[in-house]
Amino acid sequence: MLAVLDGLLHLDRPYGLELVQATGLASGTVYPILARLEAEGLVSSRWESEAPMDRPRRRFYEITPDGLLFARSALSEGHPVARKPDIAPGALGSPRPSVEPGR
Questions:
Q1: Mapping DSSP to helix (H, G, I), strand (E, B) and coil, where does residue 9 land?
Q2: Contact indicator for 70, 6 with CB cutoff of 8 Å
């Protein structure tokens, strides 16, 4: 779960496959985590309004203000965050400073 939270902090409104690729975790691991985080109000999601002809619609995820507090707390406890081996620590950028309401 920490890797997914870390991805949500570092990526701007990622879609599911983007989180799978960033974390290196299997989709069967990432999507249940996202569903659980959303059920707990820590993540919100929205579907792309229209799908291009060449792929299905994407579902974008965004960490909520409560999720931001939870993620920062969980990640600051010193637990290592698993990453895909070819993604160096910090390669995803700095954590977003805040989540603006209504974004």
A1: helix
A2: no
- Give residue 89's identity as a one-letter amino acid code: P
Helix or strand or coil: residue 33?
helix
How would DSSP label each residue in 36-74? HHHHTTSEEEEE-SS--TTSPPPEEEEE-HHHHHHHHHH
Residue 18 pLDDT exceeds 90: yes
Instruction: Name the one residue in this structure whose structure tokens are 């603006």.
Output: 100
Query: Which has more pLDDT, 96 or 64?
Result: 64
Cα end-to-end distance, the chain, whole Å: 24
Segment 30-45, tens digit of pLDDT: 999 999 999 999 999 9
Among 96, 82, 78, 91, which residue's Cα sits nearest to residue 1? 82
